[in-house]
Structures are given as structure tokens and as C-alpha cells.
Design a protein that fits this description.
This protein is an alpha/beta fold. It is built from 7 helices and 10 strands. Helix 1 runs parallel beside helix 6.
């Protein structure tokens, strides 16, 4: 678990699960972004990690296996609702969600902590508006969880 107390907001996040979008978040054009594997290894000691993907490039299961995490395939037509359902099945108040796409917006809006990434594939404006924090890369997002005082610095009152 990662615990983050947010000064001035009377909020303490108790994060147990990490939900990760795949395409445009962990990968660009279906290829895992350099540095992700090492950061995920560090985070697996504190969080249960899940990849949620419509699997545009067909690499979801292979990447999940490489990272040693669970993978959930979501409906390509209604992935947003499917991701939200998975989040809610895990108790949203204990989840951090990271994504970039339109189908991530509902999950990002409901997670205890949500981070949108703007990698090479960009991000949906709706996802950006639903997130608590926006970063330039997945490695920056994962580094926030590895160094939670960065979250405090960004979200304190």
C-alpha cells in the first residue's frame, strides 16, 4: 500500500491497486516505453497492478506477462464503461488510475488518484479534465508513486 496525506485537504489516500491503460500510456505504437518495466517492478512491492486495454495493437497479454501483472481486456466499443466497472469492483477509493484516452475518462474521474499522461500519442481532453495530475510521460507518472511526496507537493491545499 502507498499512503499519501494531503495537507490542508483532510485527505489521506490509501492506494492498494494501480490500474494502467496500455496504448498511449505504457506503450507507443504497441511498444513498451523504455523504463516502464523497472518502475513497475518497484511498485509491485506496494500495489496490485492491472493493465486494462482494448488491445488496439494486440500486444496486451504479452506486455502484461513481461511486466508480471494482470491484464483485463475491455470492450473496444464500450471500454470506458468496462474500465469503470473494473475500477469499482476493486473499491475505487483504494485505486490509482493512469491513462490517456477518451475511454479512460470515467476511470480517471472516479479513482482515488488519477494521472493522465501525454506521451507521443497525446491525450484526450476529456481524460485530461478528469485527472488529478497531468504529466508528460508514463515514467513521470510512475515516479510520482515511487516518490509520493511529489504527489503531496502537487495536490496539497
Amino acid at each position: 500500500m502507498i499512503e499519501v496525506s494531503l495537507p490542508g485537504r483532510q485527505t489521506t489516500l490509501q492506494l492498494k491497486n494501480l490500474l494502467l491503460d496500455l496504448n498511449g500510456t505504457l506503450t507507443v505504437d504497441g511498444k513498451l516505453i523504455s523504463g516502464v518495466k523497472e518502475r513497475v517492478e518497484l511498485l509491485k512491492e506496494k500495489l496490485q497492478i492491472y493493465i486494462l486495454t482494448a488491445d488496439t495493437y494486440g500486444a496486451g497479454r504479452e506486455i502484461a506477462k513481461e511486466l508480471g501483472v494482470n491484464c483485463f481486456m475491455v470492450d473496444p466499443e464500450d471500454g470506458g464503461q468496462h474500465k469503470l466497472g473494473l475500477l469499482n469492483s476493486m473499491s475505487a477509493h483504494n485505486c490509482v488510475a493512469i491513462g490517456n484516452g477518451y475511454n479512460d475518462r470515467l476511470m480517471l474521474a472516479q479513482a482515488a488518484l488519477s494521472i493522465v499522461v501525454i506521451e507521443a500519442e497525446g491525450c484526450s481532453i476529456q481524460a485530461l479534465q478528469a485527472a488529478d495530475i497531468a504529466v508528460n510521460s508514463i515514467n513521470d507518472a510512475l515516479n510520482l508513486l515511487i516518490n509520493p511526496l511529489r504527489i503531496v507537493a502537487t495536490l496539497r491545499a
